[in-house]
C-alpha cells in the first residue's frame, strides 16, 4: 500500500475526531467514514437526508478591504442569476435560498447588504447591485492615481469614520433584528479580549445584543490599529471592536457550530450530513503580497496580519472539508481563487464595468483547493461550474421543502412591540440608500 495513502487516512481520522469534539461541540464523535479521494462535486447522488432536507449555509471570507469581497460578490451575482433562471422567478434573491449567512470583514458587509430587510420585506440589495457597490468601493475607477493608493484611500475613507457615513447611507438605523434570515458577523472585542459574534438569534433574545447594522459592518472591517467603539441599540453592551478578519477570517466553522447547537431554530440539524454549505473565499487582491512573494521581501506588520488571516482561513477550510468526510463533495462547496490582481489580470485604470467583466472571467477558471499538509491543487471544475451545481442543489432543496409539512427551519420572531420600530428603521435605511441602488456606479 502506498505510504502516502496511509498518512492521508490517518490524518483524516485524527482531524475527524478533533473537529467533532472541539470544532462542533460533539462529545462522542461517530466512527470516521472511509476517505474518498477521487470524488468530485456532482459525481455522486446526495446522501439520504430524510424528508426534511438540509440547512443551507452561506459563508463569506474577508479581512477589512472592500476588494476582499470582490470575488464573492461576483460569485453571488452569478449564483443569483442562475437561481432566477432555474426557478422562473425574475425577482428571486440569494437570501431566498439560504437559511443562514455568515460573513467576516468585507464579507460581513456583503452578507449584510444581501440579508438586511427592506420596507417591502425583501432584501435591500440584489446580488448584482451589491457587486457594483463593492466594485466601486474598491477604489479602482479613477485613472488619476495608482491602484495601491486608490485602495488605501478608499479603505481609509471607509474606516476612519465611526460608525461610518457610507454604512449609514446604506443601512440607516436598521439593526440585527432587521434581517430576513439569521446573520452571523464576527469581530474581536478588545474590552473582553475575545472574539465576538454579532447574531440575529441573540439580538432577538435580548436587547443588549441588538446592534445597528452600520456599526456591525464598521466593527468587522475595523483596522487593528484603530478599534471601533460601539454599543448595542439599547446602550447596555459596549464593545471595542477590531476587524473580524483578525479573529475569524473564515466564519464557516462558526456558522456550522451555530446551526448544530441552535436546536430552537434548526431542530433537525444533528450533523454535517444535514447541512449544505457554500463557502466563498476572498480575492487575494493584495499587490503588496505579490511583491513580497516575487522579491522575497520581509512583509509589513499589516501584511503579516493578512497572511495570518489567510492561513487561518485555509485551515478552517481544510478542517470543515475533513468534517464532511465522504459527503463533502455534495454538502460542502468552496470557491477560492489565488493571485487575483497580482499580475496583469486587472489594469490599474480599470472602470467598474471592466472590473466586473474581469471578475466574471475569473469565475471561468478552475478553483484552487487546499490539501491537508500538501499545499494547494487545481480542482477538476471551474468556479462557474461549481456555482451552477450549487444553484441546482438549492432549487432541489426548495422543492423538497414545499412537499414537507414539517419545517426544517423555525426562525425566532421579533416581538410585536418591536415590529413598528423595525419597519421604521428599515424604511430609513432603504430611503437613504435608494439613490445608491439605482445607480450603475454609485457615488458615495
From TrEMBL:
<comment type="function">
    <text>Lipolytic acyl hydrolase (LAH).</text>
</comment>
<comment type="function">
    <text>Possesses non-specific lipolytic acyl hydrolase (LAH) activity. Hydrolyzes phospholipids as well as galactolipids. May play a role in disease resistance.</text>
</comment>
<feature type="domain" description="PNPLA">
    <location>
        <begin position="58"/>
        <end position="256"/>
    </location>
</feature>
<feature type="region of interest" description="Disordered">
    <location>
        <begin position="425"/>
        <end position="444"/>
    </location>
</feature>
<keyword id="KW-0378">Hydrolase</keyword>
<keyword id="KW-0442">Lipid degradation</keyword>
<dbReference type="InterPro" id="IPR002641">
    <property type="entry name" value="PNPLA_dom"/>
</dbReference>
<protein>
    <recommendedName>
        <fullName>Patatin</fullName>
        <ecNumber>3.1.1.-</ecNumber>
    </recommendedName>
</protein>
<keyword id="KW-0443">Lipid metabolism</keyword>
<dbReference type="Pfam" id="PF01734">
    <property type="entry name" value="Patatin"/>
</dbReference>
<dbReference type="InterPro" id="IPR016035">
    <property type="entry name" value="Acyl_Trfase/lysoPLipase"/>
</dbReference>
<comment type="similarity">
    <text>Belongs to the patatin family.</text>
</comment>
<dbReference type="GO" id="GO:0016787">
    <property type="term" value="F:hydrolase activity"/>
</dbReference>
<dbReference type="GO" id="GO:0016042">
    <property type="term" value="P:lipid catabolic process"/>
</dbReference>
Amino acid at each position: 500500500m502506498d505510504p502516502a495513502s496511509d498518512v492521508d487516512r490517518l490524518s483524516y481520522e485524527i482531524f475527524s475526531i478533533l473537529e467533532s469534539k472541539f470544532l462542533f461541540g460533539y462529545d462522542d464523535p461517530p466512527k470516521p467514514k472511509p476517505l474518498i479521494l477521487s470524488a468530485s462535486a456532482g459525481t455522486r447522488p446526495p446522501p439520504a437526508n430524510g424528508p426534511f432536507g438540509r440547512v443551507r449555509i452561506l459563508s463569506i471570507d474577508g479581512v477589512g478591504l472592500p476588494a476582499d469581497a470582490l470575488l464573492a460578490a461576483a460569485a453571488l451575482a452569478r449564483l443569483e442569476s442562475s437561481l432566477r433562471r432555474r426557478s422562473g422567478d425574475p425577482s428571486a434573491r440569494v437570501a431566498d435560498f439560504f437559511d443562514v449567512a455568515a460573513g467576516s470583514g468585507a464579507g460581513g458587509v456583503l452578507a449584510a447588504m444581501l440579508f438586511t430587510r427592506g420596507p417591502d420585506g425583501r432584501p435591500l440589495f440584489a446580488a448584482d447591485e451589491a457587486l457594483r457597490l463593492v466594485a466601486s468601493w474598491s477604489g479602482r475607477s479613477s485613472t488619476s492615481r495608482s491602484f495601491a493608493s486608490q485602495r488605501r484611500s478608499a479603505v481609509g475613507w471607509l474606516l476612519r469614520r465611526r460608525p461610518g457615513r457610507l454604512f449609514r447611507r446604506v443601512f440607516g438605523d436598521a439593526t440585527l433584528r432587521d434581517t430576513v434570515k439569521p446573520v452571523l458577523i464576527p469581530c474581536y472585542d478588545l474590552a473582553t479580549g475575545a472574539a465576538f459574534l454579532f447574531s440575529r438569534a441573540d439580538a432577538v433574545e435580548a436587547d443588549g445584543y441588538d446592534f445597528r447594522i452600520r456599526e456591525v459592518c464598521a466593527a468587522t472591517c475595523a483596522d487593528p490599529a484603530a478599534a471601533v467603539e460601539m454599543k448595542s441599540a439599547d446602550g447596555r453592551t459596549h464593545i471595542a471592536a477590531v476587524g473580524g478578519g483578525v479573529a475569524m477570517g473564515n466564519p464557516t466553522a462558526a456558522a456550522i457550530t451555530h446551526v448544530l447547537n441552535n436546536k430552537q431554530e434548526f431542530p433537525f440539524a444533528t450533523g454535517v450530513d444535514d447541512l449544505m454549505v457554500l463557502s466563498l473565499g476572498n480575492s487575494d487582491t493584495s499587490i503588496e503580497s505579490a511583491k513580497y512573494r516575487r522579491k522575497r521581501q520581509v512583509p509589513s506588520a499589516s501584511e503579516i496580519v493578512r497572511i495570518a488571516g489567510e492561513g487561518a482561513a485555509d485551515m478552517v477550510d481544510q478542517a470543515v472539508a475533513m468534517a464532511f468526510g465522504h459527503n463533502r463533495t455534495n454538502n460542502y462547496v468552496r470557491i477560492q481563487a489565488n493571485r487575483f490582481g497580482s499580475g496583469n489580470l486587472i489594469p490599474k485604470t480599470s472602470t467598474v464595468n471592466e472590473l466586473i467583466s474581469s471578475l466574471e472571467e475569473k469565475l471561468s477558471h478552475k478553483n484552487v483547493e487546499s490539501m491537508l499538509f500538501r499545499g494547494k491543487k487545481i480542482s477538476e471544475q471551474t468556479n462557474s461550474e461549481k456555482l451552477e451545481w450549487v444553484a441546482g442543489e438549492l432549487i432541489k432543496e426548495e422543492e423538497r421543502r414545499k412537499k414537507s409539512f414539517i419545517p426544517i427551519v423555525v426562525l425566532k420572531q421579533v416581538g410585536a412591540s418591536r415590529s413598528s420600530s423595525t419597519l421604521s428603521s428599515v424604511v430609513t435605511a432603504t430611503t437613504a440608500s435608494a439613490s445608491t441602488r439605482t445607480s450603475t456606479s454609485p457615488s458615495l
